[in-house]
Amino acid sequence: MQNTSEIIRKLEEPFPAEDHKERPLKGGDRWFYIPWQKIRERLDQVCVWQDFYSDFTYSPDGQRCIVTCTIEIGGYKRQGIGSVPLVELSNTGKDCSRGEPEQRAVAAAFKAAAEQWGVARYLDDQAFVTRHLRKYHDGRPVAYARKNQNQYTMPRPQRLQSSNSGQISREEWLKLQRSN
């Protein structure tokens, strides 16, 4: 049986270029992601794992479906929350939801729990994704990388500065936004 640190090291490895998919962002940008099915395959390849889900809940305003996923590996558990709108609307106001909200919440919670194990965590650094994909002669992200990185990072607050780059990751930025 592998030790947990070896399992995590394998889970954290970047995915092959062909596994990365593009999602459009407002303003015409793109964000690269890994589909939950590929994340599940990575877990299957690397270790024995189990997932557990909470009961579905809905936000007090009735607009969001929420569920928690727990992934257990080697007796250790990590959790992620999936919170999705019941109806996703396009810029023109049309319903563009794909699947039932409960299915989307489960997929979001699963991806969030897997990220807690390190799976596809590198996606928060789209500049890294660009460099990674370019190694495999995949030029898709070149046009968006710089703009995405500038748009989804902000100057690092003095109390958080650990490097001279003056920027924080998208994940850190989102945490700061939630705390304000």
**Uncertain runs with pLDDT below 50, 5 residues or more?**
153-165
Largest sheet: 4 strands, antiparallel
Helical fraction equals: 25-40%
Strand content: 15-25%
- Coarse structural class: alpha+beta
End-to-end separation: 44 Å
* Order of SSEs: HEEHEEEEHHHH
Rg from alpha-carbon coordinates: 17 Å
Task: Compute the number of strand runs.
Answer: 6
Average of pLDDT: 84
Number of helices: 6
What would your notes on this structure say?
The structure is a single chain. This protein has 180 residues and is of the alpha+beta class. It has a domain at 53-116. The chain is built from six helices and six strands; from the N terminus they run H-E-E-H-E-E-E-E-H-H-H-H. The protein has helices at 4-12, 36-46, 101-116, 126-135, 142-151, 170-179; strands at 21-24, 30-33, 49-53, 57-58, 64-73, 76-85. The strands form two sheets. Strands 3, 4, 5 and 6 form a four-stranded antiparallel β-sheet that branches. The chain has a two-stranded antiparallel ribbon with strand order 1-2. Strand 5 and strand 6 (76-85) form a beta hairpin. It is globular and about 45 Å long. The relative contact order is 0.15.
